[in-house]
């Protein structure tokens, strides 16, 4: 098992803010929009240096999506930012018509995704956003794993022509990827090569998968861990290559088990190579208030849950 | 263009509208007929468009030209006719309206790459936000082009419209002219009965807009005058709202003033009766 260490923990939303800061200096067409959550989205450095390229929309997310679509008509690259719940479900029709169907170069950047928003509870958490966004034709869906990768993804999507959903979160988690990495949209990242089980993880769950891999290794099980930072387009080749070798799969995501990464991987397996698959995901329920760690524990999203799923998958081979 | 010439274009556009809707037995003739003067006046008189050899040149960004957005996308027939008659695409294509494999979808879309269209519309309430975004982009680009957007009066019932209405004056979007087509009808009946919008002009004024009225929205001279007035008031920190009073179904006597022709196609006899009232001026498609 390849060793991953970290010296600090940071939130992925700060990676987004750092990426925006870089884009503010590098790309004059980038415009940031926000619906009264500037601090939460870590946009202050961008705004300080580029006040003319920041659009405060107030608490009106539908209008923000429409304005973003309009800004692309004129060659701007709008980054529309708010909490994931309000960036997707609240404005699904606006995204569908004015962004996806109209094929506009809008970047929808969503913080506080998943359960780990924590104490605010289910109204502010969202576990359905990956599903909603991946069902939109033409939408690219990205869910990076740590601060550095979120920063790299933020910078990368500015150069990609087309609508993008970029998802990140609030809790501080280990920073274990390279600071100067290149982010390749649609290309899965091999975290650890292994032979006994494939663990496909996304977002915050990648670090849990790494810890699970270490536990499994101690028990003599050699796990292959792949970071699926891009849910759509999905790197089908990497998934199939891995299960050809291991013969079984675990998917791990901070999302409803319906409609997320697990279902995307299952489609690939059903079409191409039937192998046992186990889901580590929220079991079709809403969240609740609690600390991120408590919620991960209660809803079955920890390293030990991945370990158990891996053993179930191996047993079904 | 002289008023008389514009009126001739409008007559042909009305023929196109009823023929298109009849051709596929589907679509929205009422609101289309009511907005004919506005769209003809915009495209043949008011909008500064990029042209080459007398024909408009379309690019999605629309830099250094005026832009028009149709928020109430169901009145697509009038827009398609005007775009085609203005030279954006061949008039013969109107025969494909709402038919399989057509670029002329029931509601406008960029998906089929139809020249002249920059955003999909159909689900109501989104167009003004988009127009505001396009107007902001023009300001960022130091582009002196103006942005126009048309909404329906029933559409004012959508909440997003009021998000946009709040935003535009706050951000001093003063290169934007919005229109509300006040025909007083929506699918389920007169607007006052379905959901009374009550004093839209006062509402927009209270939100910080400069509001003007075109009382005779089906009088070409009045519409052209109103458009010049709207433009003259731009650039002073406030967006302009034009209350455009029209008659649903205007120009075809049996369609006029009734919500029943919001989304119904004429049969063969009705088509003949409608065409008998509308002079063919530019040649049917």
From TrEMBL, chain A:
This is Transketolase family protein. It holds the Pfam family Transketolase_C. Keywords: Thiamine pyrophosphate. InterPro entries: PDH/Transketolase, THDP-binding, Transketo_C/PFOR_II, Transketolase-like_Pyr-bd, Transketolase_C. It comes from Dyadobacter pollutisoli. Its cofactor is thiamine diphosphate. Belongs to the transketolase family. It comes from the Bacteria. Residues 10-175 form the Transketolase-like pyrimidine-binding domain. SUPFAM superfamilies: Thiamin diphosphate-binding fold (THDP-binding), TK C-terminal domain-like.
TrEMBL record, chain B:
Its cofactor is thiamine diphosphate. Pfam families: Transketolase_N. SUPFAM superfamilies: Thiamin diphosphate-binding fold (THDP-binding). The keyword Ribosomal protein does not apply. Residues 8-274 form the Transketolase N-terminal domain. Keywords: Thiamine pyrophosphate. It comes from the Bacteria. Belongs to the transketolase family. This is Transketolase.
